[in-house]
Amino acid sequence: MNAPFCVLTIAGSDSGGGAGIQADQRTIRATGGHALTAVTAVTAQDTRRISAWKPVPDALIRAQVESAMGGFDVAAVKTGLLPGPGAVRAVAAALRRFTPVPLVVDPVLASSSGTSFLSEAGIRVLRSELLPLATLVTPNWDEAAALTGLRIRTHAQARAAATRLAADCGRPVLVKGGHGFGRFCRDCLVLPGGGATWFEGERIATANTHGTGCVLSAAIASWLGRGASLADSVRLAHSFLQRALVRGRGLDWGEGHGPAFYGSR
What we know:
It is built from eight helices and nine strands. The longest helix is centred in the last third of the chain and has 19 residues, at 230-248. The protein has one domain: UDP-N-acetylmuramoyl-L-alanine:D-glutamate ligase, CATH 3.40.1190.20. The strands form two sheets. Strands 3-2-1-4-5-6 form a six-stranded mixed sheet. It has a three-stranded antiparallel sheet with strand order 7-8-9, with helices on both faces. It starts with 5 loop residues before the first strand and ends in a 17-residue tail after the last helix. The chain is α/β, with parallel strands linked by helices.
């Protein structure tokens, strides 16, 4: 029997299980793959906040990536939390050693509760060394603003930021619309040559939204690893996340924001 396709996630560990490595693993398994992991940071968090966190040494991050890439037939890679410019350089250097595979970069700059992970120096290295390797970059509104210096308060401004970032790094960009407003959540996919495709879904009324960016980027990586086109991978991942939000609606995780849920109930 053939082994399932492998997707490597390079991200932080969430002790609450809602985001990061844990969310990526669940998503990759749910979309038919086997999750390989490179842990970049360890966090102590619940549904309300991150109370403590510590980065993994850069050399150990690189060793994890090289072990996974060298020991398995990796079909796709996604990155999440990278805790500093050294970590970004380590990941980029490790990935360059191997035959390129689809790479989804989710530029996690800070937590939704306000904990900052990547400094201005780290953002500059991310832009110069990792984003040019990406098959797709998936910032939310705040991240797209930090990466471009543009103000984003409307969907038109989100498209403008996606266009600027795609041109700057020469790679496709999906600006996620979860931080937007209105009845529908609208994600904007822009290619370096211009032109935008919108992926729209009804905004789900739920407090259980922790880790949605991780779920979406991991699902896109999985579909790319299965050989789907970029547009189809985004569309399928968008639908997967919508179903998870609906399924998790009404679950009581206590105070704060619980995770999107797609297990059995």
